[in-house]
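pinging the channel bc i need a second pair of eyes. not urgent but kinda urgent?? the chain im working w is below, pasted from the shared doc
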Amino acid sequence: PGVVIINDDHKELDSPGTLESIRSAISEFPHVNVLTIIKAHNFDQELTMLKIGVKGVLLENFEQETLIDAIDYVASGGLWHRREIMEKFISEQLFFYKSREAEKNEFTI
């Protein structure tokens, strides 16, 4: 399938079982695009989902057109995450990049 939709089924998304199920699905099918539907925004959990490879997160009670747009976008390889999640992820990656560059420069001097 182009997209696998995982609904939290009104369970706590931060339960190890849910995240482990997502990790398993992504590791077994690395080319599948996962879109997760959650009950409520949880910054840390959404960031974790992005880091483990979830391509999109939707808050339940979405409009039908939003679901269709999200599926189409994720199926084409795009990311469907809140801006705050993406900004935090990019900031972390830039920090790690700058740290690695600084270490390289220390060793070349």
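so The CA atoms of residues 19 and 48 lie 9 Å apart. and The chain has a mean pLDDT of 88. — does that match what u expected or am i reading it wrong
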